Amino acid sequence: MEELHRLTVEEFQQSEKIPLTVVLDNVRSQNNIGSVFRTADAFRIEEIVLCGICCTPPNNEIHKTALGAEDSVKWSYYKNTVDAIKELKQKNYKIYAIEQVNGSIDLHNLKATLQENQKYAVIFGHEVFGVSQEVVDMCDGYIEIPQSGTKHSLNISVTAGIVLYEMSLLLDATKRA
Asked: Which one has a higher pLDDT value, 64 or 175?
């Protein structure tokens, strides 16, 4: 790790983060949760908020895919996703559901909506049912990944990887603007 110039867990926790929080709305797969932790670590995401049926660390299944990222990335748990969103809104976060709904914007067009010194939260939903309608209704906007195959969705861990990568690039560029 030293040769790769990787941060220690303590250095990661003290480092500047991308102003982005991930909310997992009733994600059932512990492997998906672990993958999101690992991706959040890779892009220095501020926090993961686990809600509803999501398992929480410490958990062997989460650890299998997180590979220790559950120790570096800040996380919290809410029994109800609505309560988590209310609290984020009180902290002035702009909230986006990652969901295919009327009015959603293409991930490639997201840049135009981002503002300097704004914090954001992105919500990823249940593997089968997506982000709950009650939560969608609370969001400031909706983002979807364009797809041209026969399937209309991606696995949550793949979706999170794509969205967090793109948003980390956009938010880093917005911060430097």
From this structure: 64
Partners of 95 in the β-ladder: 121
Within 8 A by CB and 6+ apart from 124, the residues are 22, 23, 24, 25, 27, 36, 98, 131, 156, 159, 160, 163
Look at residue 28 and tell me whether its pLDDT is greater than 70.
Answer: yes
> Could you identify the residue written with the tokens 């997992």?
24
| Distance in angstroms (rounded) separating the CA atoms of residues 115 and 67 | 33
Does the pTM surpass 0.85? The reply is: yes
Name the fold adopted by 20-176: Alpha/beta knot (3.40.1280)
Number of Cβ atoms within 10 Å of the Cβ of 151: 6
Question: What number of other Cβ atoms are within 10 A of residue 91's Cβ?
Answer: 9
Q: Which of 43, 91, 108 is nearest to 69 (CA)?
A: 43
